[in-house]
Amino acid sequence: MHEDGVLAAAIRARNRALGRFADWGAANPCRLQPAAAVAGVATLYELTPTNSRRRPVDTDGIRACHRALAKAGRR
């Protein structure tokens, strides 16, 4: 039970942080053209070591977050 409370507190803290980020984003609109953004992502991908790019994507962490958020939303 204690672990659920800690997780819920962490999720609330993350939600507050995301709210602050959204506020910042609204006050600082992106001036980057979509093509430049895609080119930047491509450059970051190229900088990623080859062995990392070949490794299978592990989505366990994302699934765990989705479960936690769904559980927190039911409260």
Task: Offer a quick outline of the entry.
By secondary structure, this protein is mainly alpha-helical.
Question: What does this entry look like structurally?
Answer:
This protein is an all-alpha fold. It has one domain (2-73). 79% of the residues lie in helices and 0% in strands. The chain is built from 4 helices and no strands. It has helices spanning 2-27, 34-47, 50-54, 60-73. The longest helix is centred in the first third of the chain and has 26 residues, at 2-27. The radius of gyration is 18 Å and the shape is flat. The two termini are 14 Å apart. The model has no long low-confidence stretch (mean pLDDT 88).
Which short descriptors sum up this protein?
4 helices; 75 residues
**H/I helix tally:** 4
Rg estimate, integer Å: 18 Å
How far apart lie the N and C ends? 14 Å
Q: Give the H and E element order.
A: HHHH
> Biggest sheet, in brief?
none
Number of domains: 1
What characteristic shape results from the CA principal axes? flat
Structural class: mainly alpha
Give the low-pLDDT segments. Answer: none
- Proportion of beta-strand residues: under 5%
Mean pLDDT score, rounded?
Answer: 88
Helical coverage, percent range: over 70%
Number of distinct beta strands: 0
Describe how the helices and strands are arranged.
Elements: H1 2-27, H2 34-47, H3 50-54, H4 60-73
